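User: Hello, can you help with two protein structures?

Assistant: Certainly.
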Amino acid sequence: MTPMRVLIADDHLFYREGLRVMLGAVPEIQLVGEATTGDEAIERALALQPDVVLMDLKMPGASGIEATRRIVRESPRRCTRLPFKGCTAGRRGARD
């Protein structure tokens, strides 16, 4: 089985470290990169073509919302958007 390739985009070191540890414990997931700004997230997502980008909404440079829009628009792969920290999540609209 091919592992799911994940990019973490968050400006908070502790969030990235926590996600890195959690994701590292799952053999079906491969962490392919990290970004600390919205602009860096765009650059890395387009270069690395991950299956999933875990995107923070409030980051320096381009916001997570703008970064997600650009990644979806410019990526040659079909993208599915899933909300991350600070935004509505889940089918029933649970909030952080």
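That covers the first. Now for the second protein you mentioned:
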Amino acid sequence: MSEAITLESMRADIAAAIGIAPEEIGDHDNLADLGLDSIRAMMLVDRWSEAGITLTFAEMAEQVELAAWHAIVARKLAALAAGAGR
């Protein structure tokens, strides 16, 4: 994995993508309401996928909130780590 994906790193990536300060993004804010469009969301999914986890735009689009996205990423990272420990 090239870098750790944390809640705060995801918040910073989203903020940079939509041009606002990270502290303006609440864990349960609707990211589309904050200005995140599908093109930028796909770019973020691609970026986070580079860390070695398989993410799809479809699963991330189900609930467009930072907390939901982080839960998906954390679950996949845990599964990846469990697989590496075998």
